[in-house]
Design goal:
Six copies of one chain form a homohexamer.
Chain A lengths: L15 E3 L3 E2 L2 H11 L4 H4 L1 H5 L10 H16 L5 E10 L9 E13 L5 E11 L5 E12 L6
Antiparallel strand pairs in A: 1-4, 2-4, 3-6, 4-5, 5-6
Amino acid sequence: MSNEYKFFEDFKIEESYMTAGRTITETDIVMHAMHSGDFMPHHIDEEFAKSQPIKHRIAHGNLTFVFSTGLIFQTAGMNPNVMNYGYGKIRYPGIVYIGDTIKTEVKVVDKKDAKQPTHGVLTQTETTTNQRGETVCYVEHMLYVTKRNPKA
Amino acid sequence: MSNEYKFFEDFKIEESYMTAGRTITETDIVMHAMHSGDFMPHHIDEEFAKSQPIKHRIAHGNLTFVFSTGLIFQTAGMNPNVMNYGYGKIRYPGIVYIGDTIKTEVKVVDKKDAKQPTHGVLTQTETTTNQRGETVCYVEHMLYVTKRNPKA
Amino acid sequence: MSNEYKFFEDFKIEESYMTAGRTITETDIVMHAMHSGDFMPHHIDEEFAKSQPIKHRIAHGNLTFVFSTGLIFQTAGMNPNVMNYGYGKIRYPGIVYIGDTIKTEVKVVDKKDAKQPTHGVLTQTETTTNQRGETVCYVEHMLYVTKRNPKA
Amino acid sequence: MSNEYKFFEDFKIEESYMTAGRTITETDIVMHAMHSGDFMPHHIDEEFAKSQPIKHRIAHGNLTFVFSTGLIFQTAGMNPNVMNYGYGKIRYPGIVYIGDTIKTEVKVVDKKDAKQPTHGVLTQTETTTNQRGETVCYVEHMLYVTKRNPKA
Amino acid sequence: MSNEYKFFEDFKIEESYMTAGRTITETDIVMHAMHSGDFMPHHIDEEFAKSQPIKHRIAHGNLTFVFSTGLIFQTAGMNPNVMNYGYGKIRYPGIVYIGDTIKTEVKVVDKKDAKQPTHGVLTQTETTTNQRGETVCYVEHMLYVTKRNPKA
Amino acid sequence: MSNEYKFFEDFKIEESYMTAGRTITETDIVMHAMHSGDFMPHHIDEEFAKSQPIKHRIAHGNLTFVFSTGLIFQTAGMNPNVMNYGYGKIRYPGIVYIGDTIKTEVKVVDKKDAKQPTHGVLTQTETTTNQRGETVCYVEHMLYVTKRNPKA
């Protein structure tokens, strides 16, 4: 509700916050297959799943990733000074089953000048864990952020 | 329709293919906001969008990314020898507007042994372009692939 | 299928009907969160829900309300003589859990002249109950209805 | 991101805030018909709509209402001290067309003791306007709020 | 709203009714591709469509067909004496474009005894036309209907 | 990935293939009711279903049918030489319950000349079975296919 949007200078290395949680439902997995067009049998074919080592339908890795972006939006809100630059790394070290509940911790880990003197590039890790505290998605997210006081 | 799934040895550096296309609709953007929970005004608030340099609502970068995964599935199908290892890099060098049509070129760019002798790690670039040939999403995708003949 | 739409004069105080039923699924709750943008943890975070007195994810009150409007449409159909004027009162005296089945009883409780002599304002209660007969949503709905014979 | 949730005593009469905006799309109307089951021709039949005074398909009034609940959630977040008690009044004084952008102003207008000494009942108006500042939905929302210091 | 459901004897050859209308939106086509998994480029790739004789993305034939089933439900309601036996013929003599409005005429064309003396098989044509009166979907629908008075 | 699309001459009587599988979820049934507008209580009202011989909510027959079209697309891909001519017969000999997994076998059963010398009409059966091998949907699908060498 604040109008005081943060600028590049206002972000501090190591600052962090935790989002709210979201339970991954069968609906979410069906919806992700539908939305993306990725109907891999690991996600939508229970008979196939039973024949594999994991034995259950599981969430798409990218479902977990895009849900983390929504959880972050709902906690951090919009900041017009920040643009999505891209991702440096995405890993899926754990499996998300139907019924698991995820939440995401965001931590600033790097800041450096951008090519343009008006902006900086901020890197934050976005670590999504399940209800047992196991990491299921790890992201290095790069943001292009306006400086309050560009260097002359 | 073939049962001859490729193993790690069968992938060749520089081999590539192009997916079919998909037009990004207003529906897709609304659905991505709904599915992910990311209701950033850049995507769903036309009045905000008009006040910004781009002037229009645009697709979420991650919408383009997840759509590319569906296009790849629909072209390449499922291969039980292949697991998603993660992403080394994601960039969004171009903007996707409502009505743009995207397709994705997949190219094998790297192969190396995995820690386990039974598997290799394959890196493929997934380059999504719009109808004018401009790159709008660039991904380095790492796959964990079973070897046909693990080294003794 | 009839073309004989009712006018204001045709509605009688105390006349009533019951709609068909609809089972509230996890899908409906996820869809309501997605559609409305209301991702309150009471509805989508099982871990949060378990920490609260109710112990389970529950349906949004407004989900029950909007579902009652669909059930009414499917029973009563469309009447071009009737416009939605608004609601005088909405209460949620009971909780709707995943798997509950709701239906709605509609009863005319008040009729009065509108400011315009061509129309009347009709109030109907829309009482939604679950499969145990417990009221879970109570609405006073005001309709603006064309008169067959406007007073001179 | 704060853990300092407001209690009943912390809300002040006349305090207010404005949510972010959301553009109402054809997708949202189709989705509302699908979700609720209310396929009234005013919303989904362009030929019927052309035969009526308004001439265009329009949003369900309740679509605007439920979207306002999502906009409020995205601005105000979750407060475990607050429960939805119901609505005292809902009015739809204006029409929402495809392409209109809505936002909601929330203002505290009344506070009174509840039957239970541990809680109070707070009434806030939720006034949704379009991009021209015209009110399209007006709601009196009653909330059941925990007191920090219940009277002995 | 009536409890007097029709039995086999009550249906008369040549009896017919017309449903309400529904406008086919881009949303519906995207949703049909998502729901069915049929992402044929004729429906979702505008660049492909422009290269074909028809020049535009068009609705899936089966989208029109399943929408006609919904329109029929909304007009005729549920009858527990009637079961879906199957379809004798489906044809798509016309193309449905985004923005077209369809409605369906249902006509009883045949009645015959079923193998079981308790039931009859009724055939009704379901003819869906667009706003210009052109037939876009023609269906011969067979229903298995309980008799009021089974022959001894 | 091949550019060598089949022509009419290339299809052989008795040639066949099997699609991948898809598990029918509660989500799919709710989505089919929403998408089609067919909210028959057999599919969405658990209390009604319990009162009927089958005792459970079941999938719409047409849900199974449209899912088979998606499964076929995902296996066979797009062929610009093939157009949907219609269906000669659809039957639903078995019931699909929530949690069942379906797949479809496609077999060419007939080929004949079309009125236009440039095309032929091919009939293929599309037989959808559940995880126990029981047929739940049987379709005779007619395709209008371009000839490589039209007869002079």
